[in-house]
Amino acid sequence: MPAPVRLRELIRTIRAARTQAEEREVIQKECALIRSSFREEDNTYRCRNVAKLIYMHMLGYPAHFGQLECLKLIASQRFTDKRIGYLGAMLLLDERQDVHLLMTNCLKNDLSHSTQFVQGLSLCTLGCMGSSDMCRDLAGEVEKLLKNSNSYIRKKAALAAVHVIRKVPELLEMFLPATKNLLNDKNHGVLHAAVVLVIEMCKHSPDTHAYFRKVVPQLVKSLKNLIMSGYSPEHDVSGISDPFLQVQILRLLRILGKSDDEASEQMNDILAQVATNTETSKNVGNAILYETVLTVMDIKSESGLRVLAVNILGRFLLNNDKNIRYVALTSLLKMVQTDHNAVQRHRSTIVDCLTDLDVSIKRRAMDLCFALVNGSNVQGMMKELLYFLDHCDPEFKADCASGIFLAAEKYAPNKRWHIDTIMRVLTTAGGYVRDDSVPLLIQLISNANSLHAYIVQKLYQAIRVDISQQPLVQVAVWCIGEYGDLLLSAEFEEESQVQVTEDEVLDVLEKILQSSLSALTTREYALTAIMKLSTRLQSSTNRIRKAVSIYGSSLDVELQQRAVEYSALFMRFDHMRPALLERMPLIQKGAANGPVQTVVNGEEKEEGGSLPAQEQLSQQAQVSNLLDLLDVSNPAPSVPQESKVPHAGGELLDLLDGLNLPDPQSSGLSGAQPHLVLDGIAAPNSHSTVNLKQDIPSIIAYDQNGLKIEFSFERSKANTNMLFITLRASNSTEVDMSNFILQAAVPKSFQLQLMSPSGSNIPARNSGAVTQLMRVLNTQKHPLRMRLKLMYNHREAPIEVMADINEFPLQAWE
Predict the structure, then answer these.
(1) For residue 771, what are the CA distances in angstroms to 6, 43, 363, 643, 752?
(2) Residue 423 contacts residue 386 (beta carbons within 8 Å)
(3) Which Gene Ontology biological process is one annotated for this entry (predicted)?
(4) pLDDT interval class at 130 (50, 70, 90)
(5) Domain residue limits at 561
(6) Is 334 a domain residue?
(7) What is the residue-averaged pLDDT of the chain?
(8) How would you list the strands of the sheet with 786-794, edge to edge?
(9) CATH of the domain at 797
């Protein structure tokens, strides 16, 4: 058989191939010749053939059929054969194949070979692909070689020991004494390998930390010698002596100094020397400084040293290398919680990174900017972040908007600034905000009583220009529905105020309803807002009725249902419409969201616990619990029970004097869930089983000192014993009546339930009213009698009056 081609000629032939198909043809032809040579047991050219297989394997072609030939080369006595054999074993074999176990005996023999290069080959192979079983069998030989007098062998043995510990951590103790001695070695390669070995031991066994903390002074000394040593051609890299060894020693010091005061104290001086003496003009020096910063961050270092570490990262931010800037931002983000003030000094440089072209740097800079926001710099930082939000790529807008929301909620100097900031975000990136942003902003606006006119003006102006930002439109429509009367009034005085007419407001809402840009949720908001404006825009009721009725035939079920129910309010229950469409009470955060912010007398207060009684009146709809008065066992859930108003129960005997009240057991309502105010109201042409009679005349229950209480009655057809009384309280004086509370009591033969009132303030000059629904169950058909207790504040003075009502219409009980 002719001699096979040399490796050099094969490489030249493969490189000369013009196409991949031609290359595959050359490889397949050569593999066939190599297989034939292996079958003929040709020992002369086995080394050459395996070398060619290794090259083909590197090109990605299969070469597994040469595995056994590698074992034969390893068993050879010639060094050139062993070298190719071990190289082939490291590339073609791994621990998942049982073939590698066949070389264990050869490795053991070569570890004791008289030639250091053969020993080095076997140690490299063991450290590269040794399995757990192989490591257990050969660990003793590796441990002996750690004590070898030859530095070349000690270095290779230390690296092999690292692999042994990774595969079999329980053998770690075997190497401890020899490893400790290696840390005294003068040879840089041996010392480097020893430090790597100690780091691996510390990762696998925390118990070794205390053992190696004794060598911290020795490590500090070695590091100092590297810094202070002069030029050494053998170890110099860009003017720095052995930077690889310096980095590994710093990593080991970081592990040993963590959570240990004594070890950290021993390191402080040398870390300061490394930080101040290392050249920063080359990338090699920056790598050492970065490891120094990480070490300072992890150990219990002095405050001055931590400030020095932050300043190093600050210099990194000015580097032209993007990788270094990214590393600096990532490290500062980790340090900002512990060294906030030191990081704040570099705020301007961090903000400048927001304009970087690299997206990774921009994202890290954005995260760090949000971490730097506090109460003293929130306005300046928000200005920068809002500018970034305006100009950043879409992939950043969602995270940036969410971060601005959280920062504004936590550090806002006042409510107006907070609302302006969120409105700016919604205007800029409304399509990217999280889902809960709309209810959160509505809650915030609801509690800002003094800013309602300003807010509704700003939002109205915003949606006149752009209705594409759906969250902004939803908030604006909600505010117009709630505070549309303020939009038309002159209460808000500012240069940017725009005079608005009722028709213009309705035009905008109808445009939103009809726009293809509006989502279904937005249309639902708009339809409800138009309905609410029917009680706020007195001269546009007919137009609103027509606009609502159009959607009674909408293809969308939700819009259709809303429109039908709202139309029913116009036709059959028009007397209840003002009460049902009153302004929403203050929306409070749940307990899970932290302290509740309330607005009392125009002042913001933050409470972590319960509010005083007078504040609870304004925060909890100021409603008296009649069922508490009568000791009923199943009170309505809409009436808070936990807040007892002092004067609400103080005059109980006076209120009930003269009325025969039931026992607690006989006066309780059934355990059924309470119904809504509109329970039993059926849409036109529906087949509801519950309908209400409206043939009972209304009465004036109380009319003194400008306060007028009117009762209207309705009876359920489903239960003729149940009477619904709608109370309407109006104020004809020139001053509003505030904190209005009504209590009522009936004789023991009746059962009475009070629902929550529509509000607590009765506007002056009959411009509005407070309504409240009562339910009276009269099973014995007795004549109805009732005693009322009215409490309210008028002209800054508390007023409390009693009234008996004995002249109810005959139809009310028959």
Answers:
(1) 103, 107, 54, 22, 17
(2) no
(3) vesicle-mediated transport
(4) confident
(5) 435-581
(6) no
(7) 82
(8) 737-745, 786-794, 797-805
(9) 2.60.40.1230
Are residues 10 and 51 in contact, defined by beta-carbon separation less than 8 angstroms? no
CA 614, 618, 620, 625 torsion-angle sign: positive
Type of residue numbered 23: E
Does 90 map to a domain? Answer: no
Shared domain for 439 and 577, answered yes or no, is yes
Note the pLDDT of residue 143: 93
Q: Answer yes or no: do 450 and 577 share one domain.
A: yes
What is the Cα–Cα distance from 314 to 298, expressed in whole angstroms?
18
Does residue 42 carry a pLDDT above 50?
A: yes
Q: Is 133 in contact with 167 (CB distance < 8 Å)?
A: no
In this structure, which amino acid lies at residue 221?
K
Burial of 569 (0-12, 13-18, 19+ CB in 10 A): buried
Strand partners, 794: 737, 797
Is 509 inside a domain boundary? Answer: yes
Query: For residue 208, which of 222, 218, 197 has the smallest C-alpha distance?
Result: 197
Q: How many CB atoms lie within 10 A of CB 633?
A: 11
Best CA proximity match to 11, nearest among 55, 60, 41: 55
In a domain, 658, yes or no: no
For residues 767 and 736, the answer to whether their CB atoms sit within 8 Å is: no
Higher pLDDT, 751 or 655: 751
Between strands 707-716 and 692-693, the pairing is: antiparallel
Pick from 520, 547, 581: which residue ends a domain? 581
Q: Which pLDDT does position 1 carry in this prediction?
A: 58
pTM over 0.85: no
Q: Are residues 703 and 575 in the same domain?
A: no
| Token pair 């000192």: residue | 705
Query: Among the three residues 554, 581, 608, which one is the final residue of a domain in this structure?
Result: 581
Q: For 544-591, give the DSSP string.
A: HHHHHHHGGG-SSHHHHHHHHHHHHHHHT-TTTHHHHTSPPPPP---G
pLDDT score of 807 more than 90:
no
> pLDDT tens digits for 373-406?
999 999 999 999 999 999 898 899 889 998 999 9
Per-residue pLDDT, averaged over 587-602, amounts to 44
Looking at the predicted structure, is the pLDDT value of residue 361 above 80?
yes
- Closest Cα to residue 350, out of 429, 363, 387, 550? 363
- C-alpha 74/C-alpha 439 separation (Å) is 74
Q: Would you state the pLDDT for residue 661?
A: 39
> How many domains is the chain built from?
2
Q: From start to end of 204-349, where are the E strands?
A: 236-237, 240-241
* CB-based contacts of 135, cutoff 8 Å, min separation 6: 126, 163, 164, 167, 168, 171
CA proximity to 316, closest of 299, 335, 302, 298: 335
Count CB-CB contacts under 10 A for residue 1: 9
